[in-house]
């Protein structure tokens, strides 16, 4: 005689891990993008001082018209997604595909990482200060201090700098004897993904695949990168024409730009 074993599906979903956005704190929204796709930003030149002459007509020097440069920034990212949840499937699967929860899951697991990876990629590509070093547990702290020195020489404001790194960097600097002897990681956590502070700078960690290949760590100041978040639109249509159930749609128009005059406010250390 055959034996039929009972089967049961759980009414709880095995949810995956998710991260909140880390790049919000790394960028600024100083520019207004409403109604435009391309923004032109002026940078005004300066002149080199010379010697004052105590005789003649042009005692301050020969005047010339002050120059300027114009940089264009055009929003390029226009992403969308859509899916349906059939009413019959929803009824017969204990309501596990709730449209609202499914949309939140899509934003947390797809949209937020997509934007973070893109913004970090633009920051890395546009960095004005770079170094090529293989960071190990023997030189992690020294490598970080080299970045601090480079930004100081570039006159980047000290207040507001943030360290952004793959999780592996935390392990290396924690095992660095020089770091252990002279410093420590303070545990003031105010930014998403922050593990503490080093040299007064928040340390923000992210998965390795958030960074382009070879990036060991970054030091950034939010003044360097402006974010253009033109549209974040999400909709749940209940019983739209042709569908018995829910139709979920989302669209994101966004971009990020490293400002030409402020690119030295991003320091990137890559593998040699």
Produce the secondary structure layout:
Elements: E1 38-44, E2 68-74, E3 77-86, H1 87-92, H2 99-126, E4 129-132, H3 140-153, E5 162-166, H4 167-174, H5 177-182, E6 194-198, E7 201-206, E8 215-220, E9 225-238, E10 245-258, E11 266-270
Parallel strand pairs: 4-11, 5-7
Antiparallel strand pairs: 1-2, 3-10, 5-8, 6-7, 8-11, 9-10
Give structural notes.
There is one protein chain. This protein is α+β, with helices and mostly antiparallel strands and 272 residues long. The chain has one domain. 23% of the residues lie in helices and 31% in strands. The protein contains five helices and eleven strands, in the order βββααβαβααββββββ. The strands form three sheets. Strands 4-11-8-5-7-6 form a six-stranded mixed β-sheet, with helices on both faces. A hairpin with a 2-residue loop joins strand 6 and strand 7.
Q: How helical, in percent, are the residues?
A: 10-25%
Quaternary structure: single chain
Query: Which residues form runs of ≥5 with pLDDT under 50?
Result: none
Helix and strand pattern: EEEHHEHEHHEEEEEE
The tally of strands reads 11
In percent terms, what proportion of residues is strand?
A: 25-35%
Number of domains: 1
Query: Strands across the major sheet, in which order?
Result: 4-11-8-5-7-6
Tertiary shape: flat
State the secondary-structure class: alpha+beta
Biggest sheet character = 6 strands, mixed
Radius of gyration: 26 Å
Helix segment tally: 5
What distance separates the N and C termini?
69 Å
Mean model confidence by pLDDT: 89
